[in-house]
Design brief:
heterodimer, A: mainly alpha, 20 helices, globular, B: 20 helices
């Protein structure tokens, strides 16, 4: 199939348009259309995995067609070992979030419509190789997210929605200016990312630094890197469960992906200049994020801050600029998507039943809800980096990769792991151990729908923790090539 | 060369407008809407007559004594007539201000005729290369718009807005005429072509005063103060019309007059950069606090004029194309937003609260409204994004980085108030259950606007290509001929 990437990206859009045509009372039909669209997209992405040549570092499944010839804009898609894991993560998380979202009863039609549009935007970001297209998809994720948070969110949803929108837009408009500057500096003018990657030797350091800052604003806000993280706790906490999953699981990855794909590959001198700052930011993200999580009693808020902490590991891996570090960063992004996605789903499960997320309100649920407790425990251990689970692999590689370049800050960042373990274990203790709070005597264990949503994520967490080879093999050639081609710059 | 036949579309339309006004005397009141239909047909006929100039450039494009018909002028004429057509379409279903339902039922032929005459004024304006014609056509535009914005006679706000508009308009015309007289004193002619010496303090002063006159028409800050009152008071279809056509036409004329013909000793791009920054900032920050949708859109239209002005910093490069592209996108997104505003205004009012819960009543309409608003804010994949992209590209190309930064920051700010409307539509609970009902003409206006905004947003290439072709002007050619003939600059080519 030659248009595989197009299909993966736009099948959800057709699903969304079909949903528009269904009367809003027919929720079953809406669910069916949405799930089918997401499932097709997921299956197609598996197909892409099958067709993908793991040994090659080149762009694969490339599609290219002129879109706006007068500006040199192409419809240019392609995947390599960096973007394919992200695409798989996106299609998988969208599918499980939609399964979980079948419990949404309010304004079903609109919810599923926006969700599928969001999916299109996210997939598009990871597969586009043209800056114009990249930017269009990047912005396309904002609007559905605004509505999803603002309509179906918690008590402060409106404020969270607009803060998310303005914050992210603020970053991305600078990215737009950066894209334009790249366009006018290149001869012949081009928006093609693969072409622009080859041009950096001709650009002065000050130019690259300026542009790096412009792009960094866009990416750092998404990651979110300190001090641009303040939108995240609010948005994550107010968003409905499935949307938090997507926010943490995919949207944050757009930032990390952008740093690798654009900041590092297109503007290496800028990236190099920024490294000493990046390592400090990574350290702050790790330790400060963990400490903030420690201070929370609301489970969802705690998970949200733990995302700041986990994306800090990812930045740490990036700051190393070694094949190990980059592998770790990508692995960490995948692991964080799976683990934190599952965590948000699990917190949503308990919230749907108890209508509170305050961990001190619970106690002794371990005996009462065995399935829930098992899944939650595995996920939490993965999140705090227990060896044998996916989280460990990513974190370990990140530390290993960064240590060669920045010994002090990497060593200090280990503190973060300690704090992470502390707050997660405290949560386990407060919620699942001890005497059962009689108020929750009638709590039911997870339903099939919820198990189907969470189980695949848990299974993958265990699988990638025990045997990470397949994932690493997938990304390694691309990342080795990235490191080698710029080895001279980062000596 | 008098070359009057170049102006045949304008002449043709003026005759039709006068026929409409005369017909008003005989057509009975209850059939008044018939005259609107005629007006729509006439503007369509005007568009067709422009097709003549496109198909037969040898005969219908060229220089006249004080006018020029070239691709750029034609492009703006098309834009003006499309706006006219759509605004008249919206007028058919307009029910008047909420408080009194004051939609005019009498003199509908006069109304349609005035709109057509106003359009004729703009078509002349974008073609003029003589300050006298500039002034006359601007006056034609102004006087008809004064009457149009005061057309709801029984509505006090309408009269108030028209009065303010008139006083400030008269004042700005006076300043402009004074500037023109200075120009005449310095150069001995009012013509913009063929003037040898355009430098000197006097010409500089004249340019500034003429710029003030234009600034009022295009609602450029700090000359924008009349806008919100006039726009709020005017019948909404007129607001739609006034917020697009005169603004675009005035900007087009400025492009021709200031950047091609009258440089003087002033660094015009820098002046325009400052005006652009001021205009968008003032427009956006004031719009943040509006609770009436008409006023909100009025301030937004000021900000939009500011964005267009950004492109003026790069007159030689992408700038002209950016202005054309922006104008085109602006027509459809603004018409779209106003169409929904009229729908809601007909049913309830123009206050933001009237939009509460629209999404649960009519999801399609609210989705489209959100789409138009996002387009105005410049979020992809909409026409507005392509336009903004073009404008910022022009700024970056001209190395006005600070202006581009001010521009993008402004579009972030603007998202806040555009989404305020979305907030009311999607987040607030509905006060009514039944779906929004609106007339056939409103829905057709909506459909046209939505189609164009989507189409330009997704497949802008044909429009960019036509903007590229249309950015060619004959005035530049005339200017280069003039320099080529002057013995000082190119003596060898004297023969």
């Amino acid at each position: 199939m030659t248009n595989l990437l197009t299909l993966i990206t736009f099948v959800p859009l057709f699903g969304a348009l079909a949903i528009l045509a269904v009367p809003k009372e027919k929720t079953k039909a809406i669910h069916a259309i949405g799930l089918i669209a997401a499932a097709i997209s997921f299956v197609l992405s598996l197909l892409a995995l099958g067709q993908f040549d793991k040994a090659s570092s080149a762009m694969q499944l490339v599609e290219k067609a002129a879109w706006i010839p007068s500006f040199g804009v192409n419809y240019h898609l392609g995947i390599d070992g960096l973007s394919l894991p992200m695409v798989l993560l996106t299609t998988l998380l969208t599918l499980v979030s939609l399964i979980f979202s079948m419990s949404v009863e309010n304004r079903v039609k609109e919810y599923w419509f926006w969700f599928l549009v969001l999916d299109v935007g996210m997939l598009g970001v990871f597969v586009s190789l043209d800056f114009f297209l990249f930017y269009v998809f990047w912005e396309l994720t904002l609007v559905p997210m605004y509505f999803l948070i603002g309509i179906w969110g918690g008590p402060k949803k409106e404020f969270a929605a607009i803060k998310f929108f303005l914050y992210t837009l603020f970053g991305s408009v600078f990215m737009l200016l950066g894209i334009l500057a790249l366009y006018f500096t290149s001869t012949p003018h081009t928006f093609d990312i693969t072409e622009l990657m080859k041009l950096h030797p001709g650009w002065s350091e000050s130019f690259q630094i300026t542009l790096f800052i412009a792009f960094y604003l866009g990416f750092a806000i998404k990651v979110p890197a300190f001090p641009f993280h303040t939108w995240l706790p609010l948005a994550h906490v107010e968003a409905p469960t499935a949307v938090s999953v997507i926010l943490a699981g995919v949207l944050l990855k757009m930032g990390g992906y952008g740093l690798l794909r654009v900041s590092y590959s297109v503007l290496p001198l800028g990236f190099k200049w920024f490294l000493p700052i990046l390592i400090v930011i990574a350290f702050i993200n790790i330790v400060y994020g963990a400490l903030c999580a420690m201070a929370q009693t609301d489970m969802k808020k705690m998970v949200a801050y733990s995302s700041v902490n986990h994306m800090g590991y990812c930045l740490l891996g990036l700051a190393g600029v070694t094949a190990t570090g980059f592998n770790g960063a990508v692995m960490q992004m995948v692991a964080h998507g799976l683990v934190t996605g599952a965590l948000f789903l699990l917190v949503g499960v308990i919230y749907d039943r108890a209508h509170t997320r305050d961990m001190s309100a619970f106690g002794g649920l371990g005996a009462k809800l065995p399935i829930y407790t098992a899944l939650m425990t595995v996920t939490v251990f993965a999140s705090l980096g227990l060896p044998g689970l996916a989280g460990f692999v990513g974190e370990f590689l990140c530390f290993l990769g960064a240590f060669q370049r920045f010994k002090l800050f990497t060593a200090l960042s280990v503190l973060g792991i300690l704090v992470t373990a502390a707050f997660f274990l405290r949560m386990i203790q407060k919620v699942f151990l001890g005497p059962l709070n009689q108020k929750w005597a009638n709590l039911e264990d997870m339903s099939w729908r919820e198990i189907i949503a969470v189980a695949p994520l848990t299974a993958l967490t265990v699988y990638l923790g025990v045997w990470p080879r397949p994932a690493l093999d997938l990304m390694n050639p691309t990342i080795n090539n990235m490191i080698q081609s710029l080895a001279a710059v980062f000596k | 060369m008098v070359n009057l036949k170049l102006l045949s579309p304008e002449i043709f339309l003026s005759v039709l407008a006068l026929i409409l006004m005369l017909a008003d005397l005989w057509v009975p009141r209850k059939h008044g809407k018939l005259l609107f239909h005629l007006g729509i047909a006439f503007s369509a006929a005007g568009l067709l007559s422009l097709g003549m100039a496109y198909s037969d450039p040898a005969n219908y494009q060229g220089m006249g004594t004080s006018w020029v018909v070239d691709p750029m002028g034609l492009f703006f004429k098309v834009i003006v007539l499309i706006t006219t057509l759509l605004s008249l379409l919206l007028s058919l279903d307009y029910a008047g201000e909420a408080s009194a339902r004051t939609a005019p039922t009498r003199h509908l032929g006069t109304f349609a005729g005035l709109v057509l005459l106003c359009s004729v004024g703009m078509m002349l304006l974008v073609s003029s290369v003589d300050l006298l014609l500039v002034f006359l056509s601007l006056e034609l535009v102004s006087i008809t718009s004064f009457i149009l914005s005061g057309f709801e006679r029984t509505n006090l706000k309408s009269s108030e807005g028209a009065m303010k508009y008139f006083l400030i308009g008269a004042f700005s015309s006076a300043v402009m005429v004074f500037g023109i007289s200075l120009y005449y004193g310095a150069t001995g002619t009012t013509s913009l072509i063929g003037v040898r010496d355009q430098s000197g303090t006097l010409v500089g002063l004249a340019s500034l005063m003429i710029l003030v006159g234009f600034g009022f028409k295009a609602s450029v800050a700090p000359f924008h103060l009349w806008v919100p009152d006039a726009y709020e008071g005017a019948p909404t279809p007129v607001t739609t019309y006034l917020s697009i056509a005169p603004k675009v036409a005035a900007l087009a004329a400025m492009l021709r007059v200031f950047l091609q013909l009258m440089p003087g000793d002033i660094d015009m791009p820098r002046l325009f950069a400052c005006l652009a920054a001021l205009t968008m900032t003032v427009g956006n920050f004031t719009a943040l606090f509006q609770t009436n949708v008409k006023r909100l859109l009025a301030y937004s239209s000021i900000a939009q004029a500011g964005y267009i002005l950004i492109a003026f910093v790069s007159p030689g490069g992408l700038g002209k194309e950016a202005v054309l592209m922006y104008a085109l996108a602006y027509v459809f997104m603004n018409v779209g937003a106003f169409t929904v505003a009229i729908m809601i205004g007909n049913e309830d009012s123009y206050e933001l609260e009237a939009y509460d819960g629209l999404a649960s009543r009519s999801f399609g309409v609210s989705l489209l409204m959100a789409f138009f608003l996002l387009s105005l804010a410049g979020i992809p994949p909409t026409a507005g994004f392509i336009a903004k992209f073009y404008v910022f590209a022009a700024a970056i190309e001209a190395k006005y980085y600070w202006l581009a930064i001010v521009g993008v920051l402004n579009s972030v700010v603007s998202v806040y108030y555009y989404l305020r409307i979305a907030y009311h539509m999607f987040f607030m609970p509905a006060r009514k259950r039944e779906p929004l009902s609106a007339g056939f003409y409103l829905y057709s206006g909506l459909a046209v606007a939505a189609f164009c905004v989507v189409f330009i947003g997704l497949y802008p290439d044909p429009f960019i290509a036509s903007a590229k072709i249309s950015s060619a002007t004959l005035t530049e050619a005339a200017r280069s001929v003039k320099t080529a003939l002057s013995p000082v600059s190119v003596p060898a080519r004297g023969g």
